[in-house]
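Let us work through a complete example step by step.
Step 1: write down the sequence.
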Amino acid sequence: QVQLVESGGGLVQPGGSLRLSCAASGFTFSSYALRWYRQAPGKERELVAAISGAGGSTSYAGSVKGRVTISRDNAKNTVDLQMNSLKPEDTAVYYCNRRTGDYWGKGTLVTVSS
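Step 2: predict the structure and record it as tokens.
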């Protein structure tokens, strides 16, 4: 069955960096576009970044553009989210998503605070 498992969250100071990773299994990884979403306390889930199956096409939310990079390793079945210059408003649970079939991981918490 399809599984998505996020890791890499934690507490970081404003201006710091974190790299999130999503390990996927149960499907032909390179055939599917993948996305990172986040949900802050009291807010709706929002799309952060997306990447095509081959990795050649990416897109970003305006709120993170220039600070976040999505990438994937189709040999390792992982999709990563490198986040730099983190701000307190980036605090959220970050989720990995495969749109086709609407599969979600359980999320990893990122807290940006001094």
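Step 3: interpret the result. The mean pLDDT is 97.
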